[in-house]
Amino acid sequence: MSRIVAGAAGGLPLKSVPGDSTRPTTDRVKEALFSRLESYDVLGSARVLDLYAGAGSLGLEAASRGARSVLLVELAPKAVAVCQANAGIVNKALRNDVVSVRRGSVDSVLDSFAPVPGANGGKTWDVVFMDPPYPLTEEELAKTLEKVALVLEDGATIVVERSSRSAEPTWPVGLERFAEKKYGETRLWFAEPVKVGAE
What we know:
GO terms for molecular function: 16S rRNA (guanine(966)-N(2))-methyltransferase activity. This is 16S rRNA (Guanine966-N2)-methyltransferase. Pfam families: Cons_hypoth95. Its EC number is 2.1.1.171. InterPro entries: DNA_methylase_N6_adenine_CS, RNA_MeTrfase_RsmD, SAM-dependent_MTases_sf. The protein has helices spanning 27-40, 57-64, 77-94, 106-113, 138-149; strands spanning 47-51, 69-74, 99-103, 125-130, 152-163, 175-183, 186-193. Helix 2 (57-64) packs parallel to helix 3. The chain has one domain (27-193): 3-Layer(aba) Sandwich (Rossmann fold), CATH 3.40.50. Strand 1, helix 2 and strand 2 (69-74) form a beta-alpha-beta unit. The chain is built from five helices and seven strands; from the N terminus they run αβαβαβαβαβββ. It is an alpha/beta fold.
């Protein structure tokens, strides 16, 4: 059973998506990931986007550790239902509606946040988690990362979780890897926005 590792809702059990359609992040990897993010001081009051959320464990952990708002994005109906149940559990524990859920494809949701020419920009995020299904091709992931690059706040942190056997993601213009770490069969890639043409 998955659980919240630490923070205001630490120890709270979470529901899991039935079957094997999702690949939950292990508590060991989650604890290491969040220890690193806390060392970067990026979680407090962050706006967090959890893409390919599954049961929502990464976004929910961020909420427990002080994120200002968390959006879980998932397409599969069973996973959406679990995200909604887990969001309700965590929001009740935090006594605040920090976590919300949106059903849809990752690319369509990102498109809805992108800035519109002539308007005052789109919705931006401070922390983005991406734990795409392994069958997602590197080309598909690269295209999605291009969309992510358009909706980031300055100083944002992106975390991509992949199989340790997968190649490094292809980072688009405007994103740059600054760290990576392997945990058994899992590898985490950390990236941040950079100004195009910056020295």
